[in-house]
Amino acid sequence: MWPPLSSLLLINPRSGTGSPTADELVAEARAAGVQTHVLQENEDPAEVARASAAEVLGMAGGDGSLGPVAQVALERDGAFVCIPFGTRNHFARDLGLDRDDPVGALRAFAGGTERRIDVGRADERLFLNNVSLGVYARLVHRREAHRRRREAFARLRAWAILLTHRQPLGITIDGDPVESRLVLVANNAYAVELPSLGERERLDEGKLHLYTPGADPAERVGGRFVVAAQARRLEAAIDGEPDILETPVEFSVEPSALRVLVPPAESG
């Protein structure tokens, strides 16, 4: 079965470890009848997706590149396809995809099974995995700032910041003061052993899980949270990508909002 003509796969050639290469993924996708667009440096994937009339939008890249394309799919009530092509591919893992088989994930375009999953919002910004504030967000920002330097040096510098920055954020959650160096708002529950994150068993619970290690309570569950701070702007990491959020930030969840196509073997 050929995928519908109104399908488009965007590919970030700078993601992942290079196997398969972007050119090889393009060839495989085109052989399967999937239209492709390889993103140029600094090209906005959301703008490319909006310029297309495709009803099925796919993204081959890391976790941080998925949300903007998923947002466009949601806006037009189209379907979204995730092709694991990044370094960690946490969303693909939680979706049940084989993170080592981006070519196999292309089968979602042809006869894929539809799932409905939740999306989170930081104000209007969509996220699929989580948003972090505090020391991890600072690590992500510093890593990005030094990414053109030697990778080993950048990692050491980032972890040094993580280990030595001990000042609480000075925030409130729904008006309650909270002392923690890290706030993590997750779209559905993680198996958590902070500061590491495990897998999510569900993507359709319809709940946010807010984690503040060292605080009481360390976890809150709900459909909406408002995070305020003395600072007007906070460094954040949204699905692992650096960003700046204006405070207060309203976090919310949209249950079963996004249509996702997965290969038949991963439909469970």
Rounded mean pLDDT score:
86
Fraction of residues in helix: 10-25%
Low-confidence stretches: 144-150, 152-156, 158-163
What does the largest sheet look like? 10 strands, mixed
Order of helices and strands: EHEHEHEHHEEEHHEEEEEEEEEEE
Radius of gyration: 19 Å
Terminal Cα separation, in Å?
21 Å
Percent of sequence in beta strands: 35-45%
According to DSSP, the number of beta strands is 18
Task: Describe, in plain words, how this protein is organized in 3D.
The protein is of the alpha+beta class and 268 residues long. Strands 1, 2, 3, 4, 5, 6, 8, 9, 15 and 18 form a 10-stranded mixed β-sheet that branches. The chain has a 6-stranded antiparallel β-sheet with strand order 14-13-10-7-16-17. A two-stranded antiparallel sheet has the order 11-12. Helix 2 runs parallel beside helix 3 and helix 6 packs antiparallel against helix 7. The chain is elongated, with a radius of gyration of 19 Å. About 7% of the residues have low confidence.
Looking at this protein, list some descriptive labels.
268 residues, 18 strands, alpha+beta, 6-stranded antiparallel β-sheet, 10-stranded mixed β-sheet, 7 helices, elongated
